[in-house]
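I have been asked to look over a protein record a colleague put together. Alongside the sequence sits a line of tokens, each denoting a local backbone shape. Please read both lines and tell me whether the tokens look consistent with the sequence. I do not need a full report, just your reasoning and any doubts. I have pasted the whole thing underneath without changing anything.
>
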Amino acid sequence: MHRPSFSTRDPSWTPKPDATDASLVLVVAADGDEDVAAVTETDGVDVRHARDVEAVSKTLADRLVDCVVHAPGSGVPDVLETLRATRDVSATPYVLYARDPGLATVDEVLMQSGTAYVPRRGDDAVERLLSQIRRLTSERGLRQALELRERALDQATVGITVADADEDLVFVNDGFERITGYDADEALGDNCRFLQGGGTDEETVAEIRAAIESEEPISTVIRNYRRDGTPFWNQLEITPVEDGSGTVTHYFGFQKDVTERTELEGRLRDRNERLDEFAEVVSHDLRGPLSVAQGYLEDVEGEQVDAAVHALDRMERLIEDVLTLAREGRSRAKTESVALETAVTRAWRTAKTGDLEVDLGDDPGTVQADPERLQTLFENLFRNVADHAEGATTVRVEATGTGFAVVDDGPGIDPTVADSLFDQGITTHEDGTGFGLAIVATVAEAHGWSVSVGESENGGARFEVDCTGGA
């Protein structure tokens, strides 16, 4: 990974140790050492003792030690031997605490990283020792946090970049190299515009430029090109980073290859457009001759004529339902706050409900919905009651904890169709089209909702719409 040529300033990047956790210090010193006793009595320090090199190695292997303190003396292992034993196991910080260990020994110790020498002289010697322990353990924590951050950046599946205030790249992770095909050496010092090409949308580029100039974050999808020239759809997020004075110094960028998803969305849009066109053509081509046939039958009487009129009326309903189903399933609904009472009232006026009555009870509240599609949902639920709930007299619309419910006092759901109720073409009525509840399910899906059916308290049907999507 290429390491960034900038300094991080945000301390929240670094994990904070729990202030209540004591630092575990392994002391290699003679028994009865008074300075060691003083360290042991210090708040925030948990001291463990090692009498020989083997004990040092074993303790470091078994425990997460924050610092090793070596105070040479009678019966205490050699300094360099102890340091080697420490480094053979881990990079744990090492402090030599001695009166006069010799210049060569001090040099040998300080040549190693994460080490310090504290002369054992003066009344403040213990305080200086504690200060070095705190410094080394803090530096080790920071170093480990940086190493973890570097590993996380490189192992991330998304591309991560950092650009300076002039928008030149100063850092790219391995994910960026994998997605784009550009090595870090090729990308660094350049503007990320090298990913653009002939098929890159100029309006999207202008939106990105405007966001950067206004120092605002932006999230968009743009067509970019890999090093080998192959195009890909890049879900791009750019966030400005400020210094302590509020000046933008860098831009963080996140790239994700969403080519498969974007192409699938495009195919779905094309398919929905073709379905819309097909539905319109079929509707137009069928309604023409249908209107002619109905016109010829208007002034003709007879039992067979009545049957023909009935069949033509059913064909007209079928055409209308097919067209509605195609329209409702074409895209995600654009929502706004809609009063359920308003939607129910409008749907009740347009649906053919016969002698049924509607009961709104207490204020059912509002939902986030497309007003026209919500009305279509209610129209089809009301029509379903009128057509299939024999003996029903009332339809009640009520709020639920997650949405709303439409409840009737009819005979309930026919168990033979209960499992396929929302499928297209399923009906128990000889004049039914089998599309009404399929339209209900399609409208719900377009909103991200779920719809289910059960039995009401009085044995009728209860259609419940979960506006949270079942989350």
Notes: The chain has four domains: 11-153, 156-257, 261-331, 333-471. The first strand starts at residue 23 and ends at 28. Residues 356 and 393 are 5 Å apart (CA to CA). The mean pLDDT is 81.
